[in-house]
Amino acid sequence: MHHNKAVEIKNLHYKYPDGTMALDDINITIEHGESVALLGPNGAGKSTLILHLNGILRGNGEIKVFGLPVNKHTLKEIRRRVGLVFQDPDDQLFCPTVFEDVAFGPINMGLTKEEISTRVNKALASVELEGFGKRSAYHLSFGQKKRVAIATVLSMEPDMLVLDEPTSNLDPRGRGKIIKILNSLPVTKVVVTHNLNEAAKLCKKAIIMDKGRIVADEDIEKVLSNRPMLEAHGLISS
Ligand SMILES: Nc1ncnc2c1ncn2[C@@H]1O[C@H](COP(=O)(O)OP(=O)(O)OP(=O)(O)O)[C@@H](O)[C@H]1O
Ligand SMILES: [Mg+2]
Prior knowledge:
- This protein is an alpha/beta fold and 238 residues long.
- The protein has nine helices and ten strands.
- The protein has helices at 46-50, 75-81, 98-108, 113-126, 142-154, 172-184, 196-202, 220-225, 227-232; strands at 7-15, 21-30, 35-39, 60-65, 68-69, 82-85, 160-164, 188-192, 205-210, 213-219.
- Strands 6-7-8-3-9-10 form a six-stranded mixed sheet.
- A hairpin with a 5-residue loop joins β1 and β2 (21-30).
- α3 (98-108) runs parallel beside α5.
- The N and C termini lie far apart (46 Å).
- The mean pLDDT is 95.
- The structure holds adenosine-5'-triphosphate and magnesium ion.
- Adenosine-5'-triphosphate (ATP) binds at residues 16, 18, 20, 22, 40, 42-48, 87.
- The site of magnesium ion (MG) has 4 residues, from α1.
């Protein structure tokens, strides 16, 4: 029995240091095990919003993740439970080798050497990068880096996956494989994407953002069948 929601955000506002108002009164609730597509045009505030889910950005308002208010006392626990894949893999990968990047989470969780290497190998296999452990992420292609970034959170086996455009730049086979893997994981998911087809394959619910605000939050079929709304917010072109 979960009494808490996976995510509860109330009256969240965020302004970047240069004065850009990126989040303007965000209110959302995500249930345990729910999968939510976060949609919206470029600059809508999607990446800014998800960076609040594990305390990388701290705006004004109330955010609870698994019932925990996001603050300096809960940050470690929240980051263990929330696996966040950044939009740009260069923000995620900082170790000399792919193995070390993917092992980083499991090492921090205090797992044994054996468990760590099992998790790393499993995560790399999931993103079709078996045998890449010794490589330097720096010298990989963009799509390969994106896969490593996804592997760094899969290896943590988190309770919630937050993925910022996980399949952008992946080839069709790689995209299909990632969708299959994500659908096989029964955890809470938030997926930022511009691909409505993929959103429908992955998610039950959709949240549409535009200009820092939530403009829709309902079942994905409802959202995807409302063509005037999709057009108004730049999700389909006329
Ligand atoms: N570091 C920053 N400093 C100032 N403004 C920023 C910064 N990062 C983003 N912004 C601004 O905040 C707003 C929201 O940006 P954000 O990156 O969250 O949009 P997004 O919905 O993720 O867009 P995209 O689909 O292009 O990834 C935009 O107006 C953007 O220009
Ligand atoms: Mg973004």
